[in-house]
Amino acid sequence: MSLCLRGWKIPSRFLYFLRVFALALFLLVGCSSQPTPTPVPPPSPAALPAVGTVARAAGTIVPVQKALLGLTSAGRVASLAVAVGDQVAAGDLLLQLEDSAAQAQLAQAQAALLAAQANLAELRAGPQPAQVAVAQARLDGARAHLDQLTLDRLLTPATPSQLAEAQALVRSAQAELDLLSADARPSALAAAEALIAEAAAGAQSAQAALAHTELRAPFAGSVTSIALALGEMALPGQPVITLADLSRLQVETTDLSERDLGRVAVGTPVVVFVDALQREISGQITRIALQSSVAGGDVVYPLVIALDEQPPELRWGMSVDVEVRSP
Fold this sequence. Notes:
The protein is α+β, with helices and mostly antiparallel strands and 327 residues long. It has 4 domains: 3-32; 45-64 and 248-325, Elongation Factor Tu (Ef-tu), domain 3; 67-97 and 213-244, CATH 2.40.50.100; 102-197, no CATH class. It is built from 5 helices and 18 strands.
C-alpha cells in the first residue's frame, strides 16, 4: 500500500515507521504530563531530633509558687477583699468570716486577764494606809469594849457569852490588822500569778479564734480563683482562694518514663518547646520526683525545670515538649 501526495508516491514501509514514531511520541508526552506532587511542609522544631537529645517528655507551664488557701474554722463569708486577677502582698486580707462571737469571747478573756493582773499588783503593793487605819480603829474599839465589860463586871456582871463574843471581836480585828501589816505570803503571790497565766492563755486562745475568721495572703501573688461568694458557708479545710506568683513560671513534666531516668540528673540542660508560642526556651532540671506516678500505663517520674527566660506571653497551663540534652 502506498500514498500519493501531490504527485509523490509514499511507500507503505515509510508509513509504518511514521505510525511507530507517532505512537512513541504520544506515550512520551503522556508520561511527562503526570500531576506535580504536593510539597510536604517541613516538620516542626519539636518533631526534629536534636543532636545530643537523650530523653523526651511532655510537660506543663506552672508557677514556682502557688497555693490553694482555706480556713481552719467554719463560718459565713462576711466580706471579700479581693477579686480574681488582683495582685496582693504577703499578709493582705483576702476574706473575712462573721466574727461577732469571736470578738465577744476575746473581750471577755481580756477582761479576766486585767482583773488577774490587778489582783497581783494589789498583793505586791501591800495595804493602803487608810486600810491599816480602819483596821487599827476596829481593834481599838474591840479592846475598849472588852475592857469595859471587864471593869463593869462588879457593877453589871457580863455573861460568859458576852465576854466570849468581845474576845472574839478582839482576835478578829487583830488578825485583820496583822494581815494588812505583814508582807504578802509567797503562796498568795503564786496563786495570783497562776491566775494571770490562765487568763493570758484564755486571751491568747480567743485572739487565735478571731484570727481564724480571716484569710490572709501567705505570699505576694495573683488571685486566680475564688470558690465562695458573700453569705456562703465556708468549711474547715475547704479550698477557697487560689493564689499564685505568676512572675516566676517553671515546667513540670508528666510522662518521663522510668526507662529514661538514668539519663537525667539535676542540672542537666534541656530545651523546652512551647506549642502555643512555637518557641524554644532553654532551661535545666532542678528537681526529680522521689516517688513515681503512672501515666498511660507507664511508670513515670515528674521533673521540675527552671527556665532561662520567661517571655511575657508565657502563661500558666501551656503545654510544652521537653528535650533533655546530654551535658
